């Protein structure tokens, strides 16, 4: 019976008649985004004129200066930079790798150094290979089988999972921690199958970490394309004694200063209620970071521009934050949250777009049941735009540090099927982003920010920011 | 109150607990499609090895022979060809066009002859241009303004519509009937803005018709790329007396014989209840027809293969029909329905996939309210696969002739945002189709066919096929 009542309650909430003013306002955001949006032009500049934006690079600094100037031009109430110290890792010259099945019999394969990895010796590193499906298998094999070898982590992303992000989560430990773990058993290097559901020739980089491992124990780690991973695996079955050679010249420099870029419209009624919308300004150095996360950056800027363009004056303070260093350190997200805490700012809601510029399907929310019921009551407003996914779940890495027991965090959830075809690879480029899909995402985000601005939290609190 | 009751009824239907056997069966279809599907490999062959398949072409005949052979290999109960007479229109050598703003000052622009158009004189056709936003404006201008000119239909697809198919419907009359109408006012040729929401350099072909217009009155018609349409429009403002020259050598030949390709699994309990799943085998001659409708062809074949691969034995007869000549005549769809009528076959359900191989979002159904309620009761089964769109509406051009007052027709509804970037243009190619998206569509179709096989119509009828 309780179950039935729950269904009825839930269902009535789902089927509530939308407020016509809200319907009109959402239509205005979508129409303006699709007919006179600016997100796509911004993305064109950010990706094609500035390009990749790895923390500590000139590209990242140009992106800081340019996005600040663009926000300045919107007539916001305040635009400023927030200093953040970030890691500086540099890839160096292009990596090289080959499989040697017998002396003089070699196959070149595409690899890319993982972000944060040490270099190989300048002549390269050559060793026999042991293939494992993950860290557990590595541990089971133990030092005897691993000593002196290159460990090849080859667990593929699970193709039967509908959410490709879930498939990513199930594999990324071998990329992030594989080298640290393998070194403990005497491995000399690590090759990781690219986090890509597709079979192709592009290696995908991404963060790895040695944790607090002694510098002397750190071994080089690289990603190999999925096609080459399949080839290496099948050659290993034919010739278990084959050797792998790779060379990479990457290097970590001392931290440098960079910035989060922030712009805001001050709330007309509740200026101390802060609503954040953001993405991360940094990207990996392959491709031009169009989906990850150029899309989230320009969509977040577009939220404030759409408010201006449609004449909507928010009651609460709407702040766009372009976070620096999500990819290899999260320094921007952490610095922003720490400063907000110190300043006693009250963040009621934060939304991140960091899942690509594909057709938006909805949002996932980190919040209480009461807050989630409010969100569900808004769902019918989104139906004309085919936005249907409203689920509890994660938000985004940059806004996550803002979570407290009162506020709500959310992440935009675009269609995920193509995302890992491009993620952290040289084909994460402007031409892989569809203008309409990007614009629909921006309007979807603007609509949710508008609803939080208008209605506030379901369970309001006077508490300042506190965790 | 009635409204509230309706909502409650509707909501309870939506929130009904799915049958665990059905949940398991759907999961088996999705898992098999994503882990061991064959649709993508089939599409690779159909597009890259066979290529475009315009009715009456060698490509179309190769596609008939190859798909029949592939169906033969599946161990179905019956595979056969159904003869259909189809139009044969041939493009001839590549079209040529230029804008001449003054003698000797010219700009080349990309055009493509519309399917069914007559040729220009072999030296080309050169005339002043009058731009109109549609057929109504043409009529308002009248013979005085139109006589001796090339009519340039430049109404763009409406970008603020969320469904790009709706935007297409709002424009396609100028392509289909523009030449016939313009000729009545003395126009000598027609240029139509490509049906594309994106600004790019690719002209998009598609069907046009002269109806029963006298052969002597038929004027040539071509599509121009969206970028070139914008250029022509702005040059016309600067130089209204400019001339447009185009040359095309297309020709209509007498009808030829071709075939629908049909394969079926005979139902174990109700063999006379027929369920059809299909797409169209023909394509336009630009590109390789990967989305339109190679995707629908291989997905429809995959439905029967997935039944076999998962060991599901249907109670009703499941028939895949690969229709010939959807693009420029619909001869296959009409012939199939006429033969079914003559044979007194009872088609209870027919599903078409002809909206591209993109991420599936759901279906639209042509049916009564009672039948639609049954469909809605199945909706929760699809939630794990993010399939959410269940609406009344159209099905597909090929299955539409099967409609009677008892049966249900449906069309797969994939994400539509990118579809018209590729539709009828040379970039409708294999590499624009994502493997997972295609496979998700095949599993979604298989799931719905399974449910109709298991449960039959909500309002069963003993009537034979009758309209």
Radius of gyration of chain A, rounded?
24 Å
The name of the CATH topology of the largest domain in chain A is: Aminopeptidase
CATH class of the largest domain in chain A: Alpha Beta
Q: Estimate the global geometry of chain A from the Cα principal axes.
A: elongated
User: Number of DSSP strands of chain A?
Assistant: 16
End-to-end separation of chain A: 37 Å
Kindly report the average pLDDT value of chain A. 95
Q: Largest protein interface?
A: A-B, 33 and 33 residues
Give me the side-by-side strand order of the main sheet of chain A. 1-10-12-11-13-16-14-15
What kind of oligomer do you see? Answer: homodimer
Instruction: Estimate nothing, just give the exact number of structural domains of chain A.
Output: 2
The amount of helix of chain A comes to: 25-40%
Largest sheet of chain A: 8 strands, mixed
Please give the count of helices of chain A: 13
What tags apply to this protein structure?
467 residues; elongated; eight-stranded mixed sheet; homodimer; alpha/beta; 2 domains; 13 helices; Aminopeptidase; Glucose Oxidase, domain 1; disordered N terminus
Give an account of the 3D structure:
The structure is a homodimer. By secondary structure, the first copy, chain A, is α/β, with parallel strands linked by helices. Chain A has helices spanning about 1-15, 20-35, 40-50, 60-70, 135-145, 165-170, 170-185, 225-240, 290-310, 330-340, 370-380, 420, 435-455; strands at about 80-90, 95-100, 105-110, 110-115, 125-130, 150-155, 190-195, 220-225, 245, 250-265, 270-280, 315-325, 345-350, 360-365, 390, 410-415. Chain A folds into 2 domains: about 20-90 and about 255-455, 3-Layer(aba) Sandwich (Aminopeptidase), CATH 3.40.630; about 95-250, Glucose Oxidase, domain 1 (3-Layer(bba) Sandwich). In chain A, the strands form 2 sheets. Chain A has an 8-stranded mixed sheet with strand order 1-10-12-11-13-16-14-15, with helices on both faces. An 8-stranded mixed sheet of chain A has the order 3-2-9-5-6-7-8-4. In chain A, β2 and β3 (about 105-110) form a beta hairpin. In chain A, α2 runs antiparallel to α13, α5 (about 135-145) packs parallel to α7 (about 170-185) and α9 (about 290-310) packs across α13 (about 435-455). The longest helix of chain A is centred in the C-terminal third of the chain and has 21 residues, at about 435-455. Chains A and B meet through α1, α2 and α13 of A and α1, α2 and α13 of B.
């Amino acid at each position: 019976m309780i179950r039935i009542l729950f269904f009825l309650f839930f269902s009535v909430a789902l089927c509530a008649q939308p407020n016509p003013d809200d319907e009109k306002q959402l239509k205005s955001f979508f129409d303006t985004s699709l007919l006179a949006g600016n997100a796509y032009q911004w993305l064109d500049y950010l990706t094609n004129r500035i390009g990749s934006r790895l923390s500590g690079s000139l590209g990242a600094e140009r992106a800081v200066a340019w996005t600040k100037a663009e926000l300045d031009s919107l007539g916001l109430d305040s635009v400023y930079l927030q200093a953040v110290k970030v890691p500086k890792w540099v890839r160096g010259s292009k990596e090289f790798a080959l499989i040697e099945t017998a002396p003089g019999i070699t196959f070149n394969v595409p690899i890319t150094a993982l972000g944060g990895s040490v270099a190989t010796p300048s002549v390269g590193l050559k060793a026999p290979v042991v293939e494992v499906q993950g860290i557990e298998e590595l541990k089971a094999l133990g030092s005897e089988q691993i000593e002196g070898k290159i460990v090849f982590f080859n667990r593929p992303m699970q193709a039967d999972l509908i959410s490709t992000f879930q498939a990513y989560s199930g594999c990324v430990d071998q990329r992030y921690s594989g080298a640290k773990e393998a070194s403990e058993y005497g491995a000399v290097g690590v090759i990781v199958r690219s986090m890509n559901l597709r079979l192709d020739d592009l290696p995908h980089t991404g963060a790895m970490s040695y944790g607090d491992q002694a510098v002397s124990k750190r071994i080089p780690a690289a990603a190999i394309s999925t096609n080459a991973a399949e080839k290496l695996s099948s050659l290993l079955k034919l010739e278990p004694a084959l050797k792998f050679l790779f060379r990479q010249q990457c290097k970590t420099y001392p931290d440098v200063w960079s910035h989060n870029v922030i712009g805001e419209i001050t709330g007309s009624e509740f200026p101390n209620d802060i609503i954040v919308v953001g993405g991360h300004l940094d990207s990996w150095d392959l491709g031009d970071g169009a989906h990850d996360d150029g899309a989230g950056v320009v969509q977040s800027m577009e939220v404030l521009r759409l408010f201006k363009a449609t004449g909507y004056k928010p009651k609460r303070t709407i702040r766009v934050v372009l976070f620096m260093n999500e990819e290899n350190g999260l320094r921007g997200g952490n610095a922003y949250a720490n400063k907000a805490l110190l300043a006693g700012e009250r963040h009621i809601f934060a939304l991140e777009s960091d899942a690509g510029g594909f057709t938006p399907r909805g949002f996932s929310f980190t919040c209480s049941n009461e807050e989630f019921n409010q969100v569900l009551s808004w769902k019918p407003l989104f139906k004309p735009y085919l936005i249907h996914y409203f689920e509890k779940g994660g938000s985004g890495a940059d806004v996550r540090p803002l979570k407290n027991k009162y506020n709500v965090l959310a992440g935009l959830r675009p269609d995920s099927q193509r995302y890992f075809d491009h993620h952290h690879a040289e084909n994460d480029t402007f031409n892989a982003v569809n203008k309409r899909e990007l614009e629909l995402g921006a309007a979807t985000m603007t609509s949710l920010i508008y609803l939080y601005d208008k209605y506030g939290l379901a369970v309001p609190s006077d508490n300042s920011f506190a965790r």
